[in-house]
Design goal:
- This protein is mainly beta.
- It has five helices and 32 strands.
- The strands form eight sheets. Strands 1, 2, 6, 28, 29 and 30 form a six-stranded mixed β-sheet that branches. Strands 3-4-5-7 form a four-stranded antiparallel β-sheet, with no helix packed on it. Strands 8-9-10-11 form a four-stranded antiparallel β-sheet, with no helix packed on it.
C-alpha cells in the first residue's frame, strides 16, 4: 500500500515567515487608533505609508523604505485632511502618487517627492469631493491609468478620473448599508463588494448594475471582506452565526453554495485577506491577532488548502503588503508584510526555502508591472485589458535600466501638450494643474531650456544600457543551462 498521496505536494508547503532585525524596523510611530477596519498601511517598492495619530485633523507618514530605525516625532507628515484618515492606497502605475480617504468626506491625491518628505505636505494635487459622509475605502483601478474608486459611509461608490478631477460613475442605491470592502477584478472590468447587509455583490461599474449577488454569504453580524481572485472566483472572510471566523471560496457563475468553506477560530478581529495572483496564495491576517495564516487556492477540492501559520508575540494593529515587483527574488522572497504594532512597523519576510541560488522561474512568473494597460478614456469607452506583465528576472540582476524604468512623474505639466509640441513648459509659466494632467506622464528631463542634443545623449545612453542588459540576460541564461546540465549529471 502506497502512502505517497497522504501529504499534499505543494512548493509553498514550507514557506516560512521571518521578522527582520530590530534595527530594520520603523520605530516610535504613533499608529492611528481610529476604529475602522482598514489596513492602516500601504507599501510600494519605494515607500511605506502609515496612518498615524494627529491632533486637529488627519495625517499619515510616508517613509522611504530605507529610512529604518527610530522616526523622530518632528518627521514631516502628509496632513491636509481636516478629519482622521481612514484608508490610503498607492497608485499601481506611479510609485510617487498616493490617495487617501478621510472622515472629512473627501478623497485627496498626493504627489510624494522622489526622496520622501522634507517638510509637511498640506497641499494635495487633487481634492475629490462627492461623498456626504466619511470615506472609508479608496482603491486604484489595476490596469487603467488615473482611475480611482472611493466608497463612503453614505453607501455610495464613486469612480473618478483623477487626471481630470471628474466623477466618471456614481453608483448609488446598490448598497442598502455600510460597505465593508471593495476589490477590483484582475482586468478591472468588475469589482466585488462586501456589505453590512451580509451580501456579496459583483458590480459592473460602467453599466452601473449588479451582475451577481449572494445574500448572507456569512451569517455573522461582524464585518466581512471579499476579494477577486485571478481566475474570477471570489474569496471571502467573515463570521458564522456562532461568531466563528470563516473563509469561503465562491464561483461567480453559481453563488448558491460556496465551493469551499472553512472555519478558523472564535476570535473577534476582522480577517484581512491579501492575495498573490502569481502563486494563488492567500494570506489572512486578523486584526488584533499575532499570526498570519496562509492558504493555497487550487482547482481541485477542497480548493482552499491550509499551508502554514506565522506566529509572533505582539498583536497587529494593521498590515501592509508589498507588491511582487518590490521583493528580493535572489532570496526566494514571495511576500513581505509590514506589521503595525502600537508604536512601530515591523517588516515580515515570507520565504520559500531553496538550495539553488539561481532565479526561480516557478516562484516568479511574469507579474503586473508599473505600466498602465490603457488610459482612463479608453476604459470608459468600454475597453478591457489585463495588467501589463513584466519579468522579475531583471530584478535579480541589478542594472541601471531598472532605475531608469522608475518614472518620477511630474503632476505640474500637461503631458498631452508636451507630447504634441515636443517642448516643456517655460520656466516663467506659473505651475498649474490642468484638467488633462496625467499622473503617469514621463519625467521632465532638465529645465525648460533642454536642448535636442542633451535629449539625444540620454536616449543613446538608454539604448546602450538596454543592449547591455539584454546581453547579460542571455549570458546568464546560458550559464544557468550549463549549471543545470552539470547538476543533472550531464557533461
Amino acid at each position: 500500500m502506497s502512502f505517497r498521496k497522504v501529504v499534499r505536494q505543494s512548493k509553498f508547503r514550507h514557506v516560512f515567515g521571518q521578522p527582520v532585525k530590530t534595527d530594520q524596523c520603523y520605530d516610535d510611530i504613533r499608529v492611528s487608533r481610529v476604529t475602522w477596519d482598514s489596513t492602516f498601511c500601504a507599501v510600494n517598492p519605494s515607500f511605506v505609508a502609515i496612518i498615524v495619530e494627529a491632533s486637529g485633523g488627519g495625517a499619515f507618514l510616508v517613509l522611504p523604505l530605507h529610512k529604518t530605525g527610530r522616526i523622530d516625532k518632528s518627521y514631516p507628515t502628509v496632513c491636509g485632511h481636516t478629519g482622521p484618515v481612514l484608508d490610503i492606497d498607492w497608485c499601481p502605475h506611479n510609485d510617487h502618487v498616493i490617495a487617501s480617504g478621510s472622515e472629512d468626506c473627501t478623497v485627496m491625491v498626493w504627489q510624494i517627492p522622489e526622496n520622501g518628505l522634507s517638510q509637511p505636505l498640506t497641499e494635495p494635487v487633487v481634492v475629490l469631493e462627492g461623498h456626504s459622509k466619511r470615506v472609508g475605502i479608496v482603491t486604484w483601478h489595476p490596469t487603467a491609468r488615473n482611475v480611482l474608486l472611493s466608497a463612503g459611509c453614505d453607501n455610495v461608490v464613486l469612480i473618478w478620473n483623477v487626471g481630470t478631477a471628474e466623477e466618471l460613475y456614481r453608483l448609488d442605491g446598490l448598497h442598502p448599508d455600510l460597505i465593508y470592502s471593495v476589490s477590483w477584478s484582475r482586468d478591472g472590468s468588475r469589482f466585488c463588494t462586501a456589505c453590512k447587509d451580509k451580501s456579496v455583490r459583483v458590480i459592473d461599474p460602467r453599466r452601473g448594475t449588479v451582475v451577481a449577488e449572494k445574500e448572507r454569504a456569512h451569517e455573522g453580524a461582524r464585518p466581512m471582506r471579499a476579494i477577486f481572485l485571478a481566475d474570477g472566483k471570489i474569496f471571502t472572510t467573515g463570521f458564522s452565526r456562532m461568531s466563528e471566523r470563516q473563509l469561503a471560496l465562491w464561483d461567480t457563475e453559481n453563488l448558491e453554495e460556496p465551493m469551499g468553506l472553512q472555519e478558523l477560530d472564535s476570535s473577534n478581529g476582522a480577517l484581512l485577506p491579501f492575495y498573490d495572483p502569481d502563486t494563488n496564495v492567500v494570506y489572512v491576517c486578523g486584526k488584533g491577532d499575532s499570526s498570519i495564516r496562509y492558504f493555497e487556492i487550487t482547482e481541485e477540492p477542497p480548493y482552499i488548502h491550509f499551508l502554514n501559520t506565522f506566529t509572533s508575540k505582539e498583536p497587529q494593529r494593521g498590515m501592509g503588503w508589498m507588491p511582487k515587483r518590490g521583493l528580493d527574488v535572489s532570496k526566494c522572497e514571495i511576500a513581505r508584510f509590514y506589521k503595525l504594532h502600537e508604536r512601530k512597523c515591523e517588516p515580515i519576510i515570507m520565504t520559500v526555502p531553496r538550495k539553488s541560488d539561481l532565479f526561480q522561474d516557478d516562484l516568479y512568473p511574469d507579474t503586473a508591472g508599473p505600466e498602465a494597460a490603457m488610459e482612463a478614456e479608453e476604459w470608459v469607452a468600454g475597453r478591457t485589458a489585463g495588467p501589463v506583465l513584466v519579468s522579475l528576472r531583471q530584478a535579480y540582476v541589478p542594472s541601471k535600466q531598472r532605475d531608469l524604468k522608475v518614472s518620477r512623474r511630474t503632476l505640474l505639466h500637461d503631458s498631452r501638450a508636451t507630447a504634441a509640441t515636443g517642448a516643456t513648459t517655460p520656466p516663467s509659466t506659473p505651475p498649474a494643474v490642468p484638467a488633462s494632467t496625467r499622473f503617469s506622464a514621463p519625467p521632465v528631463l532638465g529645465s525648460g531650456t533642454t536642448t535636442g542634443g542633451r535629449l539625444d545623449e540620454v536616449l543613446q545612453e538608454v539604448a546602450a544600457l538596454r543592449a547591455l542588459v539584454a546581453e547579460q540576460g542571455q549570458r546568464i541564461s546560458r550559464l544557468e543551462e550549463q549549471l543545470s546540465r552539470l547538476e543533472n549529471g550531464h557533461v
